[in-house]
Write a structure and sequence with these properties.
64% of the residues lie in helices and 4% in strands. By secondary structure, it is mostly helical. A hairpin with a 2-residue loop joins strand 1 and strand 2.
């Protein structure tokens, strides 16, 4: 039974194999164990019942079909997404308004692109919103009565 004590010690250290764990569970299920290890009986008998109801770890094989189907789907969706983004860039290049911006002015709802007229109207607008030195002095430092 020294072997069983060694296996239990390995079990609690997390170093046992599936076969060793099965040997421990079977030893406790059969019943002939030393009195010092009797306290572990409920644990290993319970594990044996769970293992029997769900199948042993080495008997259960992962489903490769699910794993194999994920990769093509991912490639399919990633390819579709990349193609969609590429199409967006291509269409954006040919849409109106994608050419270089030009200067223009809107007067009474009509758009004018003549550079001289645009510059004249821009300077007029700046003159309308600019302040003289006296106005600026009065705004920044109002005179207290």
């Amino acid at each position: 039974m020294d072997r069983l004590e060694e296996l239990i010690e390995k079990y609690f250290d997390g170093r046992t194999t599936c076969a060793e764990e099965r040997a421990i569970r079977q030893a406790f299920a059969q019943g002939d164990i030393p009195a010092g290890l009797e306290m572990y009986r409920p644990l290993f008998v319970g594990l044996d019942k769970v293992s029997a109801s769900h199948g042993h770890a080495e008997d259960v094989k992962p489903s490769r079909r699910k794993i194999a189907l994920r990769a093509p789907r991912l490639r399919y969706w990633a390819g579709g997404l990349a193609a969609g983004i590429a199409l967006c860039f291509v269409f954006a290049r040919f849409l109106p308004g994608s050419e270089e911006a030009e200067s223009y002015v809107v007067i009474n709802g009509k758009r004018y692109t003549d550079p001289a007229l645009v510059q004249t109207k821009a300077l007029e607008a700046l003159d309308n919103v600019s302040y003289t030195d006296e106005e600026l002095q009065h705004l920044l430092f109002p005179v207290q009565p």
